[in-house]
Design a protein that fits this description.
It is built from 7 helices and 11 strands. By secondary structure, it is of the alpha/beta class. The protein has one domain: Rossmann fold, CATH 3.40.50.1360. The strands form 2 sheets. The chain has an 8-stranded mixed beta sheet, with helices on both faces. A 3-stranded antiparallel beta sheet has the order 4-8-7. Strand 2, helix 2 and strand 3 form a beta-alpha-beta unit. Helix 1 (9-31) crosses helix 2.
Length: 257
């Protein structure tokens, strides 16, 4: 794993967006096309803004998937990840090769199988992800299913900390409003990605970052599994890196064992 620490969320997001853009371009050059995986949430604002500003990417050769979606949440709801991606990504790159979005309003198992079948035919070139306040990846809350083999899985019960995070970020007014179930990409599917760009700014994520980097790899800290990936790049700011025992210098890529 390599770590970049920016001075603030904007600098971190710009660095992450540029790194992702260069990896997408490289995949297009090598393979003729690129398949990418996008996270949502407040942590991805600056990264996505930088990514869509890159005019040197052949977007018509890029297919897009996303990490997760609430079951039963309509696409017009402000917390819908389909709405998020439309407003912050899809509307800015209208000539994509394809965009495969999870429809949480369909029968969950039918939709899970549908999107799993599609992504199985599209190996992910670059996954752009974040880490939750409970160290989750996508909606894989602790204890995460590290061994789940299906590309997408159904999460039957999002944990309290995960749901509270959605309230803290302003997507819902109360925990009671947050759906308890979701369709989520699996840990194994994330780990199959050729490259991973993990963008994690904000003081709220500091403990999750520390646990993911300094605790033993465990499904109680789902993001800790990223240390086993052959090409994972973690983009932090000084706030999210503030609890690390041995913090790399700002603006440096530093290997982490």
């Amino acid at each position: 794993m390599k770590i970049f620490i920016g001075n603030d969320a904007k600098e971190t997001g710009i660095a992450a967006g540029n790194a992702a853009a260069d990896m997408i371009k490289d995949a297009i050059k090598k393979d003729g096309s690129a398949n990418i995986l996008l996270a949502t949430g407040a942590s991805q604002f600056e990264m996505l803004q930088q990514l869509v500003s890159r005019t040197d990417i052949e977007w018509n050769k890029v297919s897009v998937f996303h990490l997760d979606e609430y079951i039963g949440l309509p696409a017009w709801h402000k917390a819908s990840f389909r709405k998020y991606l439309k407003e912050r990504f899809l509307d800015h790159v209208p000539h994509l090769k394809a965009a495969y979005l999870i429809n949480g309003e369909e029968d969950p198992e039918t939709e899970r199988r549908r999107i799993s079948d599609i992504i199985s035919k599209h190996p992910i070139s670059v996954a752009m992800i974040g880490i939750g306040e409970n160290a989750h990846l996508a909606f894989n809350d602790p204890p995460a299913q590290f061994e789940a083999n299906e590309p997408y899985i159904i999460i039957d019960s999002l944990d309290e900390e995960c749901r509270q995070q959605q309230v803290n970020e302003g997507w819902f007014n109360s925990v009671a409003e947050v759906p308890a179930t979701a369709i989520s990409i699996s840990i194994q599917q994330i780990m199959h990605s050729r490259h991973i760009i993990c963008t994690v700014p904000d003081k709220r994520k500091a403990l999750a970052v520390k646990n993911s980097l300094e605790k033993p790899i465990s499904n109680m800290y789902p993001a800790s599994i990223l240390r086993n990936h052959p090409d994972c790049h973690l983009f932090l700011d000084h706030l999210s890196a503030s609890l690390l025992s041995q913090s790399p210098n700002s603006n440096q890529n530093t290997p982490v064992s």
